[in-house]
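STRUCTURE:
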């Protein structure tokens, strides 16, 4: 059986690809790209061999690509760095294609797209799950800041190796070798050997290649937020030829990305994790030419009348004709005075594979009664000694899908605590226990060491600063839900009412959980994001007609 990671291109496909690249021959062994290279090229082997070597493991040969095979992975669609060395052996002839030209070929030829993207995703999964190496992050397993960096790399599928100074002798030796102390943590060692002390999220993202700068032009559409709604909008808009930029403050997926397994999303009968769904959509959007930058956080928006200007926290500005808010809603903190002390060291807002080792054979708590809480409880129950689902209300099925309720009730190591709240958290450096309180006032101490909270839905709209109409909770009003007095006075709104997903300013749209009245489900978010693109097209046509009439 052929290995899906290393398929062969047909001669017809190679002939097509020749239109996008150049042919090169090598009379001696030549490294064609190196670990850490940004914007490295794609190579198809016309004759000879390209050896992919792992410099983290004494240049171990991972694979030798033969005739009609090709190099590369999904990082080529963005700005991510090469993860290995590639050596063209003596006597080899290669077809070299620049990344921007490769994206053109993928967008135009579906059969080539299928072969390349399937192989790229398979290779990415192999590297992340089977190989030890990548960028090094050194820090404390009980540090909130270090946890945030680890969570970012995990959710953005960045290959890395975390060394915990609390338990790893190698981590302590590295600090000693570099003449550094724990005051310099978290410490990041990039693929090229560069060292970054007290690493910030922006620094890490730039080294990883997921944070981008954009050319100085006016884009057709800026999507703020890369959850299901934002990614759907990005895919549809880019596939229809619009110039699209998508930014997100943390990682693709939004709240759905925090779901360990989604089983009621159409087309995935055995379920898919929110993280995997987001990653596939992230690659899909880039396939069509969408520019995606993370973490790129919106700070404020300026409306000039002709276009919008977004000012980001990294000091960059993006100009766009239309804008789409898909920033979603965040889970809120439990109302406990010292909760921030334990965030990242016992209190978490998502349950991923990164949490498994800390939960093994431990008592775990899950707060919340929605689907994300139910999915997390079932996921964690596979590893924890006991999982306690803590619910303020008296009915587990009030907001949770029935299939999750049935599984939770059938799980032998899941206990449901109804009419109960978390009142106190205890532990010197990390969470060691907590106190629950029932509606009758009874207080119960539990030795729960990992607490996952999925409560509340606070819209991420602080960056709007009153630019568009919102309700009293901060959710963005759209379409018929906008009061007449809140409408922006302009020619477009004199001729028509706002479209169903349009805000109080023409050309400014809102989709997904951030929108007032939205259904908080992945499928509806994807539907809104894709549907909004047709409304963006209508607005762009109107704007273009208005400009032409003025010029005439």
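SEQUENCE:
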């Amino acid at each position: 059986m052929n290995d899906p990671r290393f398929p062969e291109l047909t001669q017809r496909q190679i002939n097509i690809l020749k239109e996008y690249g150049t042919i090169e021959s090598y009379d001696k062994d030549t490294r064609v790209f190196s670990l850490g290279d940004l914007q490295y090229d794609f190579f198809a082997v016309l004759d000879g061999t390209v050896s992919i070597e792992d410099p983290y493991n004494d240049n171990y040969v991972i694979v030798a690509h033969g005739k009609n095979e090709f190099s590369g992975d999904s990082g080529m669609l963005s700005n991510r760095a090469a993860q290995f060395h590639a050596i063209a052996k003596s006597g080899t002839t290669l077809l070299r294609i620049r990344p921007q030209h490769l994206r053109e070929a993928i967008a135009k030829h579906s059969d080539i797209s299928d072969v390349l993207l399937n192989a790229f995703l398979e290779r990415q999964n192999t590297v992340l799950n089977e190989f030890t190496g990548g960028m090094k992050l050194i820090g404390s397993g009980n540090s909130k800041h270090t946890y945030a960096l680890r969570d970012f790399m995990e959710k953005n599928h960045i290959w890395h190796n975390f060394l915990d100074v609390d338990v790893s002798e190698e981590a302590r030796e590295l600090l000693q070798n570099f003449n550094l102390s724990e005051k310099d943590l978290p410490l990041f060692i990039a693929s090229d050997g560069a060292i970054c002390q007290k690493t910030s999220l922006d620094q890490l993202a730039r080294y990883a290649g997921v944070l981008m700068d954009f050319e100085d032009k006016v884009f057709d559409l800026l999507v703020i937020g890369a959850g299901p709604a934002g990614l759907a909008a990005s895919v549809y808009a880019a596939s229809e030829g619009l110039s699209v930029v998508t930014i997100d403050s943390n990682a693709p997926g939004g709240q759905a990305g925090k779901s360990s397994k989604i089983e009621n999303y159409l087309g995935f009968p055995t379920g898919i994790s929110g993280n995997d769904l987001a990653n596939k959509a992230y690659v899909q959007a880039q396939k069509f030419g969408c520019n995606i930058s993370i973490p790129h956080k919106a700070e404020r928006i300026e409306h000039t009348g002709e276009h919008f200007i977004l000012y980001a926290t990294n000091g960059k500005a993006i100009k766009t004709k239309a804008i789409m808010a898909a920033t979603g809603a965040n889970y809120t903190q439990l109302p406990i005075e010292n909760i921030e002390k334990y965030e990242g060291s016992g209190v978490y807002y998502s349950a991923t594979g990164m949490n498994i080792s800390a939960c093994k054979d431990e008592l775990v708590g899950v707060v919340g009664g929605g689907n994300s809480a139910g999915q997390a409880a079932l996921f964690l129950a596979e590893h924890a000694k006991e999982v306690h689902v803590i619910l303020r209300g008296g009915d587990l099925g009030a907001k949770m899908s029935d299939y999750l309720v049935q599984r939770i009730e059938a799980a032998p190591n899941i206990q449901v605590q109804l009419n109960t709240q978390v009142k106190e958290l205890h532990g010197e450096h990390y969470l060691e226990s907590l106190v629950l309180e029932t509606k009758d006032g009874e207080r119960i101490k539990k030795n729960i060491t990992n607490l996952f909270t999925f409560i509340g839905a606070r819209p991420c709209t602080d960056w709007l600063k009153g630019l568009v109409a919102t309700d009293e909770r901060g959710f963005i009003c759209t379409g018929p839900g906008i009061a007449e007095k809140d409408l922006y006075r302009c020619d477009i709104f004199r001729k028509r009412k706002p479209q169903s997903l349009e805000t109080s300013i023409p050309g400014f749209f809102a989709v997904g959980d951030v929108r007032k009245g939205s259904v908080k489900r992945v499928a509806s978010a994807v539907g809104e994001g894709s549907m909004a693109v047709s409304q963006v097209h209508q607005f762009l046509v109107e704007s273009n007609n208005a400009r032409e009439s003025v010029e005439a």
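REMARK: DSSP finds 14 helices and 28 strands in the chain.
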